[in-house]
């Protein structure tokens, strides 16, 4: 679904947060459309959870502004409480009370002044939604990690929030529980059309659940975009390294004609596409699946870049073979096992690595 023209329900404008003398967040600008799921991804300490706490109004920012549903958040306690009641937060390590599962899930409704006869059907429905029908009488402290996480999710959903915040929802779960919680979250998002902002260190999880991904590092939002935009066009070297691009070459543009550039990388000339000026220092991001490998004796490729080199390492990766090639610059390529066998690829074998200019993503250093 395309949310590019949808009305934002959450806006963060120049959001900053300082703890002591250090900035935890630096000028975060983020919009989330109604019904959209955005995943903030990055290593520990990147500031993901801090963004969630600020947007859920659990903390006040050191600077910047937050707008929820078109209403700018102020310091007024009553105004903040009114907005918070439209939101719910599931923590990485959810706190459950030493009571029954029913009472744990019912508590937010009681805080809102709801009466007992209205509470029971909502708790029952929330438990069924997370696959825990019949768990009402169980003691919450006796549940497994996956069950506890689902109770926390039911407790968040029972209030029918407009916005759901998920902070590393599966970080402490085993693979089976992780898969179950992910499936539940995906189904709930689709059924309820919730707006979701989640934090995770798991890039694959963000791809599975989110419409857009934001990559955070050291308190900065480095890039926000769809999965394809992040993977095919990383905005900077840090993002490229985080998503697993291993071949990153730095060089200088020596020629730029009609959108085709020539870059000098350690004495090797590589052609790529982009609007850059001679003298610009650039990073070239090369994906291994975009590099084709052939023998020097074979007929030439139509690719603009043909680099002769020698295989220096080979590794099996499932059905593929990963090649490290020394062309004067270090390249990584992948081929099928069948291709590797047919070409007789081995360490020390001379090969030609071919790469189309349009397959190289270029950014300024």
TrEMBL record:
Its EC number is 3.6.3.55. SMART domains: AAA. Signal peptide: none annotated. GO terms for molecular function: ATP binding; ATP hydrolysis activity; phosphate transmembrane transporter activity. Keywords: ATP-binding, Hydrolase, Molybdenum, Nucleotide-binding, Transport. Pfam families: ABC_tran (PF00005), TOBE (PF03459). It is an enzyme of class 3 (hydrolase). GO terms for biological process: molybdate ion transport; phosphate ion transmembrane transport. Residues 300-364 form the Mop domain. InterPro entries: AAA+_ATPase, ABC_SmlMolc_Importer, ABC_transporter-like_ATP-bd, Mo/tungstate-bd_C_term_dom, Mop_domain, P-loop_NTPase, PstB-like, Transp-assoc_OB_typ1. GO terms for cellular component: membrane. This is ABC-type spermidine/putrescine transport system, ATPase component. It comes from Dehalogenimonas alkenigignens.
